[in-house]
Amino acid sequence: MPANTALSVAALSGSAPTPFDLRPGAAELADLAERLDLLGLRKLRFSGTITAEGGRDWLLSGQLGATVVQRCVVTLAPVTTRIDVDVTRHYIAEMPEPEGDEVEMPDDTLEPLGSHIDPGAVMVEALSLSLPAYPRAQGAEMEQAVFAGPGITPLRDEDLKPLAGLAALRDMIRDPAKDGE
Questions:
Q1: Is 28 helix (H, G, I), strand (E, B) or coil?
Q2: Which long-range contacts (CB under 8 A, 24 or more apart) does 96-104 make?
Q3: Which letter does DSSP use for residue 35 in this model?
Q4: How far apart (Å, rounded) are the C-alpha atoms in residues 128 and 68?
Q5: SS3 state of residue 176
Q6: In a 3-state reduction of DSSP, which class is residue 34?
Q7: In degrees rounded to 5, what are phi and psi of residue 131?
Q8: How many CB atoms lie within 10 A of CB 84?
Q9: Pfam families, per this entry (predicted)?
Q10: Could you state, in order of their start, the residue ranges of all structural domains in the chain?
C-alpha cells in the first residue's frame, strides 16, 4: 500500500473537495502483487475526491484503474485483466449499530468515520474486491476428472444428473392399466 496516504479529517476542507491521485511506484506495485497473490501488477491508479457531506459525514469517490496478471485456474498460464471501477465510500460520524439476531447486510459503501480517511487503504480493498475470482486463459477448458480405485467403475459428471435415470425407471415400472389386457 502506498505509504502515508491517510488524511486527517480535521485537516479536510468542509467547503471544497480534497483531491487525491495515487500512483504507486514499482516497489509498491511488486509488494502489493505479492500480498494479493498476483503474478504481476503492471499499472495501478486511484484518483478522486473527498467531499464533506452534511455537517459531519464525508464522501470519498474515485476511479480505480489497474492491469493485473493472475494464474489461469485451468492451465496456470498468465492471464492479464484490465480493471476499471468507480469506488464510493460514505464515512458516517454516527454509524447505526445493527440490532437483532439476524441483520441485513448494510450498504457496503458505508464506513464508520474515524480520525483519518485513507485513500490508499480504500484503493487496496477496492482492487482486491475487483480481481477476477477465476481467471481463465482464452480457450482454456476444464477436462472431466475421473477418480476411482482399481477395478471400480468411476463416477462421472453425467451420472450425477438428477433426472438421468428417469427414462430407465419409467421403462422398469409396469403400467397398471395394461395388466388387464
A1: helix
A2: none
A3: H
A4: 11
A5: helix
A6: helix
A7: -65, 140
A8: 11
A9: YceD
A10: 7-130
Residue 181 corresponds to which cell in the numbers above? 389386457
Alpha helices in 17-160 (DSSP H): 26-35, 119-130
pLDDT tens by residue, the chain, 181 residues: 566 789 999 999 989 999 999 999 999 999 999 999 999 999 999 999 999 998 899 999 999 999 999 998 888 889 999 999 999 999 999 877 767 676 666 678 888 899 999 999 999 999 999 999 988 887 766 666 666 778 887 766 666 666 656 766 777 776 555 555 5
Q: Which of 118, 45, 119 is nearest to 85 (CA)?
A: 45
Residue 46 burial class via C-beta count within 10 angstroms: exposed 0-12, middle 13-18, buried 19 and up: buried
- The Cα 46–Cα 128 span in angstroms is 13
